[in-house]
Hints:
- By secondary structure, this protein is an alpha+beta fold.
Amino acid sequence: MKRSISSTRPRGREVAQADAGGFFTRPSRRTIAVARLVALYLLISGAWILLSDLAVAALADDPRMIHQMQTYKGWFFVAVTGGLLGWLVRGDLKRIEEAGVVVRDSEERLRLALKAANQGMYDLDIPSGTAQVNPEYARMLGYEPAGFVETSSGWLARLHPEDRPQAEAAFREYVAGKLPEYRLEFRLRTSAGGWKWILSVGQIVEREADGRPRRMLGTHTDIDPLKKLERDLREANRKLTEALHYNQTILDASPVGVITYQASGEVVSANEAAARLSGGTLEQIKAQNFRELESWRRYGLLTAAETALATRQEQKLETQLTSTFGKRLWLNMRFVPFDHAGRPHLLLVVMDVMAQRDAEEAQRRANETLLAIMNSSPAAIFDIGPDGRVQSWWNPAAERMFGWKREEAMGRILPILPDHTLAEFASLRQRTAAGASLSGIEVRRWRRDASPVDISLATAPLTDLTGRVTGVVAVAIDITEHKRVEAALRESEAKFRALVEQSLTGVYVIQDNRFVYANPGLACIFGYSESELMNLGPLDLVQEADRELVAENLRRRFAGENRSLHYHFRARHKDGRSLEVEVLGSRTEFNGRPAVMGTALDVTARQEAEEQQRRLTAEKDQLIQRLQLHFDAMPIGCIVTTPDLTILDWNPAAERIFGFTREAMVGQKPFDRIIAESEREVVETFIAGLRQGHQTRSLINRNLTSQGRSIVCEWHDTPLLDESGEVVGILAMVQDVTERTQAEAALRELSARLLTAQDEERRRIARELHDTTAQQLAALALNLAVISRLFVNAPPKAGQILADCRDLVEKAALEVRTTSYLLHPPLLEAAGLVGAVRDYASGFARRSGLQVSLDLQEDLGRLPADAELALFRMVQEGLGNIHRHSGSSTATIRLAREPDRVSLVIEDTGHGIPVEVLSALQSQTGAVGVGIAGMRERLHQLKGRLEIDSGTGGTTVRAILNVKKTEATSQ
C-alpha cells in the first residue's frame, strides 16, 4: 500500500473503536491528558500572577523599578513554565512513542495476514473519492501494485454494467446510514479484460464533526471459484430434475429391474421388474439390505457395489447366481453411483440374460466343429504328406502367416524352409514319422514374399486305420511379434520405471509393515526423503484416529480377503500438517513374498472443495423453499413456464382467477385452456418479444376460466435468463381486471356523452348569442345613432356620454360575436376544417400577438363533422396553451391527410413542459387540468391518439385520426 492503513489515526467526535488488537487510540484518554495539562498551567499561571504582583508592590514603589521587576518577573515565569511543560510533554512523548511501536507491530501483522490470505484491503476517503489499497488488491485484478491507483470513479468504471446500479445504490445507502452493514458481491473488470467476482466488506471508521462519513475501511475477496461451483451446481440440479421428470414413466413400465440403495445398503425404491426377476415381492425387496445378503458376497455383487461407491464410477457385472428367494438366474448388472440430498446412493440396473446366454451356448455347441476351430484359430494349422506336399488342411491363419491361399497351397511343396534348416526339418519329420509328438519348437520359416517369420511349432503324426503314419499335422504360432514385444517390453519396463520415478502420484510397495519401495512422488506428499521413508512403516504416516482403519485394510489385503482396496484416511505431514490421502492398493508378490503395492494421492484440496459444494447445496435448498413459500402466498396470480409456454408452476392465486388447479395445469400450455382463440395471435407476438430477452412487458387481453366464462386479465410477463443471457423461462403475473375494464368502458361512454352534450350546449349558446343578444346590441347601436342625430345642439357632456355608449355597444357586440365564434365557429360547417383553422389562427394572432405559421393541405376535403370539430377544438386548446404557458412568440400548425388518416401537429419554440407535468400527461393521470384530457378523450372516441413531446427547445402536440375516404362528407 502507498500508506499504512493502521498508521492513520481517526479524527472527529464519532470514531470507530478497534477491538482488542487496537487499530485506533481512544480520544477520551487524550482529552483527559490535555485537560490536566491546561488545568495545571492555569493554576500555576494564576498563582504566579497574584503572588508576583503582591511581591513587586511590596518591594518597590519607584515606577522604573516596578517596570524592570515586571520584566524580570515575566522572563522568570517563561523559564519556569517552559521547564515544567518540557517535563510534562516528555512523558507524553514517551507514551506516544511506545504506542507507535505497538501500532507499527500491529500494522505489520495485519499486512502479513492480508498477504497470506490473498485479500485486498482499501482505505477510502469518502469526500474526495480517493483510496489507499494494499498490493493484493491490485494483483487480484491483474495490475502491478506500483502503478495502480484506486478511486471511486475508477471502481465504478470497472464494475460490470449489470452490477453497477446495485453496487452504487448499496454504497450510497450504507454511507447514508440506511444499511446496517456494507457487504456486497459484484464483478470487476481485470487488466486482461475479463471479469472477476469480488466479495466487498467495509465499515465506516471515521466521521466529520457534523456526523458526515469521512473514512471507510474494507476488504476485497476473490470469490470466482465459489461462483463457478454455484453455476455448476445449478446446471447439475437442472439436468437431474429433467432426467427424473422424463424417466419416471419409463422406469415404471420398464421390463428392466431397477433398485435404488443408500450407501449403507437400505433400499430406497424398486420397480416391479426387479421383484419379478428375483422371484420375490416388491415389499420383500424393499425390506432387504444388500450389505447383509450372503448372495451378494458369494457372487461378487458386494465388491462391485463397494467399488462403484468408492470410485464414483459405474461398475458392470454379468454372472450366474441363485437369488435370496431361491431362483436360478443369469443376470447382467450395472452398479451406478450417484449423490442425493448430499449423501451417496447406488442405482442397480438388472437384466435377465438367461435365455440369451442359453441360446448362445446352444449355437456355440452346434458350431463347435473342426472347421470352426481351424478357421478361428490364430495358429496356422496344416498337414504334410510323406512327400512333403500339403495334403488337405491349410487354414486362414496359415494363409496369413505364409502368404499362400488354400487353393494355391493344396498339393504343393512350398518353399518355406531356409536352406540352412533343411537338415533340421528332415530330423523333425523322421521323429514324427516314428510316432513322436513334438511341441514348443521355435524355428524360422519364409513367407511367400521371402520375408522371415519366427514360429513356435508343434507336430503330431497322422495315421490310418492300420496305424501307419500317413503324414504330419503341424500347428504353427507366429511368435515374430511376440519376440518383438518381449524386446519392447524390456524397453517399456525401463521407461515405466522412469515414469514412476517422475510421477506426482505416490507409488509404494509395503512388505513386513515397512516401505520397501517409495517413489519421489510419495516422498513429496508426506515431506520426507525416499531414504527416510524406507525407515518408516505405513502407520507412522497416519493420524492416530485412522490408524486402526489403515491397519485393518493392510491385514485384509495381506490375508487375501480383499485383493484390492480403495479408501481415504487422514495422514500426517512431516511438518505436522494434516492431510487427506486417497489410496488404491492391491495384493501382489515382491521378491517371492506377499506385499501390497499401490498409489497414494493428496486429496486435501479436493475434499475441502466438496465440503464447500455440499454447504452451498444445503443453502440453495433452503432458498428454494423460501422462494416457494413466497410464490404460493402471492395475492397475484403467478405462472412459471418454459420458453415454449409449457407451464412449470401455477400458484393458488392463479387457481382462484382461472379455476384450474396446479395439478391440472402443470405440463399444459395456456393456449389449450385459458387463452381465447381470438387473442392467440396477439399473445404469440407478445411472447415472441419476451423470448428475445426483452424486459417486463404488459398486456391486457381476454381469457377463459375453467367454467368457460370470459374475463379480462392484465398480464405482466418477465423473461427468466441464465448466466449467459439465454431465455430459459417466463414468469407471468396476472390480475383479473374484468370489473375495472367494465367501469372504464362505462366511464368513457359517459365522457363521450358529456363531450357531445357540451358541444350541443356550446352550439345552442352560440346560436342564442348570435340570434338574440347580437341582434339586440345591433338595434341598440342604431338607436344610439338616431339619438345622436336628434340631439344636434345637445350639451357637450351629453354628446360625450352618447359617444361612450356607442363605443361600449360596439365593443360588447364584438365580444358577443367573438364568444359565439369560439363556442361554435359557423365557418367550420360552412368552409370545412382548413378554412376554420385559417380564420381562427388569423384572429388569434391579432388578439394575442402570437405569430402563427400555417402548413395546411388545401385539398384536404371534408371530414366527418365530429372529426372536424375534435381537430378544431385541439387547435383552440393548443394555441391557448402556447399563449398562456410556453413563453414562445411563434407557433406552427400542420394539417395533412394520407389515404386512411389525418394528422394535426402544433409546435412552439418555448421552454417546454416541466418534467413532472409531462410525466403526468404521458401517464394520462388527468392530474394537470382538463384541457389535454378533453383533447385525448375526443380523439379516443374517434379511435385516434394524442402524442406529446417536450424538451428545452419547445413542445410538439400531435393528433392522429384514422379516417377513411368513404367516411368523408362533401358539403
